[in-house]
C-alpha cells in the first residue's frame, strides 16, 4: 500500500482490470462472496503471485462479473463485517504472516457499489494465512506447498530484490513526485545546484534510483527515495510506521514521559533537525577529559550521530509495527532499531559493517550523515573515552538491536561489568589503531593517577578472567605487558 487513493485513480485501475481478457494470477473478481477465510486465503495467494509476476499490488474486486467483467454491484460491506466482535480487516491482519499492507476501497460505478481490495505484493517471505501459504495457478487458488517449483522461484525473487528497490508509490505523475519528495533537500545535501526545469530534477532522482519510470509516462517512487526524502513519511502508508521516535523520560525508568516526538520527514532530509532536537533535550555535565574541564552535553554529539545513523541504516524494514527509537533517561540514552545485527555485537568495533540496506547506507555516507565504512563505532568508543564516560553497551533482544550511552560516572561508582566492558573496548580501540592496551593507556582512559596503577592492574585482571583480552606477548614482564582483544 502506498498513498491514499482518490476515487479517480481507483476508477482508472478498475477500468484497466476489467480490460484484462481473463482473471490473472494477480486479479480476482467476485460478486458477493464475503466468506472471511476465503478472503484471507486469496490475500495470501494474490500477494505471493504478484511478487512472482513482478507486480507491485494485486487486486480482489467485488461487484464485477467473473466472466464478462461487467459491473454487477455487490452487497459486501467490509467496513461493517465482523468475525465475532472483531472487525474484518483487523481479523485478517492478525492471521496473516508476515503482516502485509492491504486496504479495502469502496466506490460507486454506474450507480452500483464496487469493493476493491488492494494487496501489496509479498516481499522477503511468502505470505501465509492461518499458517498456510497459497498461490494462484491460472485462475485457481492452490496451496504453495503443492507446487515446489513455484516456491523455489518465489524465494529466488525475494533474494534478488532489496528493500530499497521496492516501490513505495506506483505510477504517479511527475507533479505528484515533486509534491511527495523533498527534492531541494536532495540537491542541497549533495551540494548540487537545483536544475532549472522539472525534467532535470526527475533525471537526477532517477539516476540515484530515488524514482523509476512507471507506465504511460508516469513515475514510481522507490522505497529508497521515500525513506530518505519523503516530505511526510505518513504519505506512504507502509512507511509511516518507520518514522524515528524520540522519547524523554523523567528519571531512570519509563514510568513518566516528559516529551515524545515522532519524525515526519525522510531520514536524510530530517537528519540534522533530528540530531539538533535530541541534543537540545540533553542536560549538560561538567567533565574532565584529557585534562580539559568544561560544560558539555551529557553525551558527545558525534557518538549520537553515529549511533542514530547506524540504527536507521541497519534496521530491518520488513519488521512490522516497529521503528528506530531514541530514549533519553536521566542517566543514559538508548538507541534501538528493529532487526538483529548481521555481525556479533562484541565485534562491532573492528568488523566492517554488513547492512541489510546497502543502497541506503551508501547514500547516507555520500551525504556525510555517517562516517566511512567501518569507522563509526570506534569513534563512538573514542568519544566516550575522551569525555571519561562509561563504555557504551551494545546488546540485542529477540527482535531488536540496542546501543546504550551512559552519563558520566566516577570509576568508583562503576560496577564490575562496567569496568570489564570499558577495558575490553579500550583494547579493541587500541588494536584497530594498530596499538596495544597497557596499564598506562588504561589509566589514561579512566583518569587514574600514576600512583594508583594497581587499580588499573585489577581491572585488567578482571577482564583477563572474563577472557575478553589476552597478553600480546606472554613472556614480557607485567610492568611492560601489552594486551589485545581475545579475537586478535
Percentage of residues in strands:
15-25%
What is the CA–CA distance across the termini? Answer: 48 Å
In helices, the fraction of residues equals: 25-40%
Question: What integer value in Å does the Rg equal?
Answer: 27 Å
Any idea what the shape is? elongated
Structural class: alpha+beta
The CATH class of the largest domain: Alpha Beta
Instruction: Please provide the count of β strands.
Output: 23
Q: What is the topology, as strand order, of the major beta sheet?
A: 15-14-18-19-21-20
Tally the helices: 15
Description of the structure:
With 488 residues, this protein is α+β, with helices and mostly antiparallel strands. It folds into four domains: 7-161, Methyltransferase, Cobalt-precorrin-4 Transmethylase, Domain 2 (2-Layer Sandwich), CATH 3.30.950; 167-236, no CATH class; 243-409, 2-Layer Sandwich (Heat Shock Protein 90); 419-488, Arc Repressor Mutant, subunit A (Orthogonal Bundle). It is 35% helix and 22% strand. The protein is built from 15 helices and 23 strands. The strands form seven sheets. A six-stranded mixed beta sheet has the order 15-14-18-19-21-20, covered by helices on one side. Strands 1-2-7-6 form a four-stranded mixed beta sheet. The chain has a four-stranded antiparallel beta sheet with strand order 5-8-9-10. Strand 1 (27-30), helix 2 (36-53) and strand 2 (57-62) form a beta-alpha-beta unit. Helix 10 packs antiparallel against helix 12 (376-386), helix 12 (376-386) packs across helix 13 and helix 14 packs across helix 15 (453-465). It is elongated and about 95 Å long. The chain starts with 6 loop residues before the first helix and ends with a strand.
Amino acid at each position: 500500500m502506498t498513498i491514499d487513493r482518490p476515487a479517480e485513480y481507483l476508477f482508472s485501475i478498475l477500468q484497466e482490470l476489467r480490460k484484462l481478457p481473463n482473471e490473472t494470477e494477480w486479479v480476482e473478481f467476485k460478486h458477493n462472496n464475503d466468506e472471511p477465510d476465503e478472503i484471507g486465503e486469496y490475500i495470501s495467494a494474490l500477494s505471493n503471485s504478484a511478487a512472482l509476476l513482478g507486480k507491485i499490488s494485486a487486486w480482489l474486486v467485488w461487484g464485477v462479473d467473473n466472466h464478462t467483467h461487467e459491473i454487477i454491484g455487490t452487497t459486501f460491506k467490509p467496513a461493517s463485517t465482523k468475525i465475532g466482535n472483531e472487525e474484518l480487516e483487523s481479523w485478517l491482519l492478525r492471521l496473516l504472516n508476515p503482516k502485509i499492507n492491504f486496504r479495502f476501497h469502496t466506490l460507486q460505478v454506474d450507480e452500483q457499489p464496487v469493493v476493491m481490495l488492494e494487496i501489496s505484493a509479498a516481499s522477503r517471505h511468502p505470505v501465509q494465512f492461518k499458517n498456510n501459504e497459497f498461490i494462484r495457478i491460472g485462475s485457481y487458488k492452490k496451496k504453495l506447498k503443492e507446487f515446489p517449483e513455484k516456491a523455489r522461484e518465489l524465494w529466488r525473487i525475494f533474494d534478488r530484490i532489496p528493500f530499497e528497490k521496492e516501490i513505495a508509490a506506483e505510477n504517479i505523475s511527475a507533479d505528484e513526485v515533486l509534491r511527495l519528495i523533498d527534492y531541494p533537500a536532495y540537491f542541497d545535501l549533495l551540494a548540487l545546484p537545483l536544475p532549472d526545469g522539472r525534467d532535470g530534477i526527475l533525471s537526477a532522482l532517477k539516476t540515484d534510483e530515488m524514482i523509476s519510470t512507471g507506465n504511460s509516462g508516469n513515475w514510481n517512487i522507490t522505497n529508497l527515495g521515500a525513506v530518505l526524502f519523503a516530505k511526510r513519511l505518513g504519505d506512504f502508508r507502509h512507511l509511516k510506521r518507520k518514522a524515528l521516535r524520540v522519547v524523554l523520560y523523567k528519571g531512570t525508568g519509563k514510568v513518566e514521559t516528559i516529551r515524545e516526538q515522532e519524525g515526519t520527514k525522510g531520514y536524510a532530509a530530517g537528519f540534522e533537525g533530528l540530531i539538533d532536537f535530541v541534543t537540545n533535550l540533553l542536560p549538560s555535565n561538567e567533565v574532565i577529559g584529557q585534562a580539559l574541564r568544561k560544560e558539555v552535553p551529557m553525551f558527545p554529539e558525534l557518538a549520537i550521530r553515529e549511533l542514530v545513523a547506524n540504527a536507521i541504516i541497519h534496521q530491518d524494514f520488513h519488521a512490522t509495527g516497529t521503528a528506530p527509537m531514541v530514549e533519553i533517561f536521566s542517566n543514559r540514552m538508548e538507541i534501538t532499531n528493529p532487526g538483529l545485527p548481521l555481525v556479533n555485537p562484541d565485534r562491532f568495533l573492528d568488523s566492517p559493517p554488513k547492512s541489510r540496506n546497502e543502497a541506503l547506507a551508501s547514500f547516507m555516507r555520500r551525504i556525510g550523515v555517517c562516517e566511512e565504512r567501518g569507522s563509526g563505532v570506534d569513534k563512538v568508543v573514542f568519544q566516550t573515552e575522551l569525555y571519561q564516560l562509561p563504555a557504551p553497551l551494545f546488546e540485542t533482544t529477540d527482535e531488536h538491536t540496542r546501543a546504550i550511552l551512559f552519563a558520566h560516572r566516577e570509576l568508583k561508582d562503576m560496577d564490575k561489568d562496567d569496568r570489564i566492558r570499558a577495558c575490553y573496548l579500550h583494547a579493541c580501540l587500541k588494536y584497530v589503531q594498530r596499538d596495544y592496551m597497557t596499564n598506562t593507556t588504561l589509566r589514561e582512559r579512566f583518569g587514574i593517577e600514576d600512583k594508583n596503577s594497581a587499580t588499573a592492574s585489577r581491572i585488567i585482571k578482571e577482564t583477563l578472567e572474563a577472557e575478553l583480552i589476552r597478553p600480546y606477548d606472554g613472556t614480557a614482564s607485567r610492568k611492560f605487558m601489552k594486551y589485545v582483544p581475545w579475537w586478535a
